[in-house]
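Case study.
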Amino acid sequence: DGGITQSPKYLFRKEGQNVTLSCEQNLNHDAMYWYRQDPGQGLRLIYYSQIVNDFQKGDIAEGYSVSREKKESFPLTVTSAQKNPTAFYLCASSSTYSGLGYEQYFGPGTRLTVT
Amino acid sequence: GEDVEQSLFLSVREGDSSVINCTYTDSSSTYLYWYKQEPGAGLQLLTYIFSNMDMKQDQRLTVLLNKKDKHLSLRIADTQTGDSAIYFCADSIGGATNKLIFGTGTLLAVQP
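After joint prediction, the assembly is written out as follows.
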């Protein structure tokens, strides 16, 4: 089955610790994205990557870092510099060929709680 | 910057039609999307419409696009309790990236 997996589903961390969220896709998509979702605020783009070894900041990149060493994988690290890290994090991927549209396919999400 | 707006809440009775509305500001939209999110889950692509279309029908779903007014709507016929979810409108902002701009989402509550 093709799809996007995120792990773990729930993650708990103490304040001041860095934490890495996993995202893997087997859809052969070039582009991958990380979003943060807070209640009543919709989705906000953290980072995105159009191709391996390249990525760009989204609207709320401060306190986050990413890497894209493999096409299938786009891990997100939430650093201790992120002031309000508790949120629901969603990973997505899409094709970069315009003939296929730009629809993004989402993973099931990781709920991060920092206390 | 580009923006997408939706009303926050809609309540309907089971069996009625639901209409969820969305407005956007981007003049160069190519595709517009509707996603559904059930509690605690990721987003599921429901349907999309290309910007040169006025309407698209897919089983119980009808998408209407008024490009002049930059208004998009999603009609769900014969709404069921299983349709209760948050519905997001998204606009592809075009250019060299595949970025989507998402609305804040509309919570659809279906009363039995």
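Observations recorded in class. The CA atoms of residues 32 and 49 of chain B lie 5 Å apart. The mean pLDDT of chain B is 92. We will return to this complex in the next lecture.
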